[in-house]
Fold this sequence. Notes:
The structure is a single chain. By secondary structure, this protein is α+β, with helices and mostly antiparallel strands. It is built from 8 helices and 15 strands. It has helices at 9-12, 29-35, 38-41, 46-65, 103-109, 132-138, 196-209, 234-241, and strands spanning 71-76, 82-86, 95-96, 101-102, 140-149, 152-159, 162-163, 168-172, 177-184, 214-219, 224-229, 253-259, 262-268, 282-283, 286-287. The strands form 4 sheets. Strands 1, 2, 5, 6, 7, 8, 9, 10 and 11 form a 9-stranded mixed β-sheet that branches. The chain has a two-stranded antiparallel sheet with strand order 3-4. The chain has a two-stranded antiparallel sheet with strand order 12-13. Strand 1 (71-76) and strand 2 form a beta hairpin. It starts with 8 loop residues before the first helix and ends with a strand.
Amino acid sequence: MSEENTPDLRASGLTPDEYSASSIKVLEGIEAVRKRPAMYIGSTGSAGLHHLIWEVVDNSVDEAMAGFATKITVKILEDCTVVVTDNGRGIPCEWHEEQGMSALEVIMTKLHAGGKFENSAYKVSGGLHGVGISVVNALSENLEIEICRGGKMFRQTYSRGESSTELTEVGESDRTGTKVIFKPDHKIFETTLIVYDVVVKRLRELAYLNAGLEIHLSDVRDDRSDTFHYPEGLKAFVAHLNENKETVYKDIIYCKAQFEDVELELAMQHNQGYSFDTIYTFANNINT
């Protein structure tokens, strides 16, 4: 190795004897997320905090896109705990032979675990593709998950990514779906203040992008609530964007096409303005 490419151990405070194989640390799974959270959610500031909500909601939206969920509710509690509920299929709770734990616990505690890596369970999905809910779990002080599936209700609790109780069957249920209750970890985030208007903007957008999906948001801190439900989907989105503008023509142009596994939706309506800031593109519900 040339002299100019030789590592300067003096600059690192290490002598050649101190810099050895034992100096190499490997962070795995939940430990890695808690040590370097910004790698997974972008930051430990307000944007990263709200990203936890997007990841949980995205799982519910994926159920809607797969044709199994019609309603999502999001509730913000006094201590900035967030409750997300859907009426989808419910996360599988059966025993996972390969991992030696329930499928739910695999999804909640293992990175890159889920049903979105091949097309049998989900044809389309957004989010972090197998690390979303486990990252939320890792970065939450407390998380409780309740599953209704197969006529039964199951519950399990976690703390900072590790299970604090066993998965337990707590009763019978005639509905299906998943409820996630999580409190962002104050040891991780610079702020744990959930901003209602930030959540409103994203949930309204998701409702526009998924025609017919009903999303209800409430905040017990100041008794606010909103419901988003747009049967016309993208057409309603364009109408909203042009609400206070003079349009060139009355009817919104809309088309939908599919080629093999790729679906495309387009809605547009010209107005008299010259601004380009109302052209939006999305892939799998993610603004591109």
